[in-house]
Amino acid sequence: MSSEIPIPVLQDYGLTGKTGFLPGEFPVTELSDPYYGKWESVVRILPSLLLSKRIRMVVDKLPQLEVKPSLLENTAQLRRAYSVLCFIANAYVWGYDEPLDTLPDCIAQPLLLISERLGLPPLATYASLILWNYQPIIHDSDLVEDIFDLQNLTTINTFTGGIDESWFYLVSVFFEKNGGQCIDAGLQAIQATRERDSKKLRSLLENMAQGIDQLGSLLMKMEEMCDPHVFYYRIRPYLAGWKNMADAGLPNGVKYGPNGSYHHFAGGSNAQSSLIQALDILLGVEHFAMGHKKPQQEAISAKTASNSFINGMREYMPREHRTFLVHLEQVSTIRDYVLSHKSDEKLTLAYDACLGMLKSFRDKHIQIVSRYVILQANKKPLSGSKSKTYRSGLSKGQGKKEQTGTGGTSLIPFLKQCRDETGSVAASDWGKKMLSTGVLQVQSSSSIVGIRKRPTDDEKLGEIGERKRTKVGLAGDWKSADDDDEIVSRSTGHW
Ligand code: HEM
Ligand SMILES: N[C@@H](CC(=O)c1ccccc1NC=O)C(=O)O
Which of the seven top EC classes does this enzyme belong to (predicted)? Predict the structure, then answer.
């Protein structure tokens, strides 16, 4: 790490402090060149084509269109083309009871070219489904308070045409938008370490802690309009990729064109979001191979020990975002600065509060995954023949692999390790203790409001099952801290 290396400038990577990893302008909703009209008309009616099981028949009739230089030169149009082709590709492969392992050339060839140009894999990714797939409902900023309000956003395309799927994507869009300011504050915080300005650093870390706290609350909005059953049985199957999918019927992956070659690619996942990885880098959180802790000896290289899934997911991010993360890693000095100023209690508290918020975010995420994947996968079939639908059709192949994420992780152990690694880098002894035993949630680093007993994981699952997940702490509940306790904020009060 060297202070010689300039701090990244968001704009150099196509990012903005206002929108983070989302494009600065709203994504293009339709390719402007009528030459690509047939792609657009297929994706427009994708839900109906899937419902009537005609997607393959229709796509097979599409002409082989060339990727014009005018398309390659226009980033917004290129992203739209990528998104359209990814939706069609995943629908083509997963749109029937049995997946098909060969994409026709009319989709495969342009998709290979376009994805290569964007530095992305040729299948539905977080970028195609979330980052470049939203639009405002009301465009006129005179008519709405904030054009970017979650209430004013809708998706451009979905597989199912349903509100649950739109909401599933939109929560992440909103999450990315809100995260932008955390990245901006993080970059300023690095600058503050260079200026050795502890007061400024503390204030920026406090902003970040609040921003990350909001991200956790946003995550819990998922339940407002995305039903777990609909998610698991109707939406999620289309998000799958073609890596480790032998059980689902794709032992070789997918062939790109009848004369092309087979490729294995992981399915869409929020692990492909650059935002959380950027926060980890800024705060010095490291993730290690499953079941491993930070290596003690230098003999084991950091690369060997690091988590290959998380690193691998960078290959599923747009090239510019990937290079931004690499640059960020080279200048990330916040943790070292805080550790070398351990006597500054307010500073260490502000830093530990950021970690606490991030850890709390990951805790909430585990609850979401439990409800949306684990509980659904373990659902007992209803009595009667209709119950078979729980294990047939689109959810086929997931019966045996229900503990696996679309990205291919053994999900709960993986997510728990990510969560625990977040807490383990706390700077203060107090923070270390709290973050290794409980969930720390603070309104801002200067206003920790209380502590209460931490529920066990089993208790949490029970609550989730009964739809009683959120408990708001009452002043009367507070007591002094011991090892099993968590600190909660008045603002969110989530477990
Ligand atoms: C129903 C909603 C969701 C489900 C079922 C879900 C499921 C998962 C699963 C299974 C993984 C493990 C990686 C994989 O195999 O794909 C994962 C990772 C991840 N998810 Fe989610 N997720 C959901 C929503 C979200 C949302 C809305 C966010 C952020 C706003 C998010 C953020 C993350 C992150 C950052 C990771 C990487 C692991 C980490 O850094 O802790 N997820 N998710
Ligand atoms: N990994 C998740 C899927 C997921 O999180 C996801 C997949 C595609 C696009 C966005 C995603 N996350 C959104 O909130 C799963 O295993 O179901």
Answer: oxidoreductase
* C-beta 269 within 6 A of ligand 1: yes
From start to end of 243-308, where are the E strands?
A: 254-256, 262-263
From the annotation, which residues make up the binding site for heme b?
A: 365
For residue range 129-170, what is the model confidence (pLDDT) as tens digits?
Answer: 999 999 999 999 899 998 988 889 999 999 999 999 999 999
For 10-382+395-436, which CATH class?
mainly alpha
d(CA 101, CA 258): 10
Distances in whole angstroms, Cα of residue 322 to Cα of each of 115, 124, 127, 319, 436: 14, 17, 12, 5, 30
Q: Is the CB of 175 under 6 A from ligand 1?
A: yes
**ipTM > 0.85?**
yes
Q: Is 257 exposed, middle or buried (0-12, 13-18, 19+ CB in 10 A)?
A: middle
Q: How far is CA 348 from CA 93, 191, 195, in A?
A: 50, 17, 18
Give the amino acid at 291: G
Q: How far apart are CA 75 and CA 302, in angstroms?
A: 35
Give whichever of 299-313, 365-379, 450-464 has the largest mean pLDDT.
365-379
pTM for the whole thing? Answer: 0.87
Nearest by Cα to 131 from 93, 164, 161, 176: 176
pLDDT in tens, 67-83: 999 999 999 999 999 99
Ranges 107-116, 255-264, 439-448: which has the least confidence:
439-448
What mean pLDDT comes out for the span 261-287? 97
Domain spans of the chain, in order of start: 10-382+395-436
Residue 271 tokens, joined? 């692990």
- Pocket of ligand 2, candidates 159, 220, 239: which has the most ligand atoms within 8 Å of its Cβ, to mutate? 239
DSSP H helices in 284-385: 302-305, 308-312, 319-331, 334-339, 345-369, 375-377
Distance 57 CA to ligand 1 centre (A): 34
Note the pLDDT tens digit of each residue in 457-469: 544 443 333 322 2
CA–CA dist 58, 144 (Å, integer) = 40
Q: Which ligand is nearest to the CA of 174?
A: 1
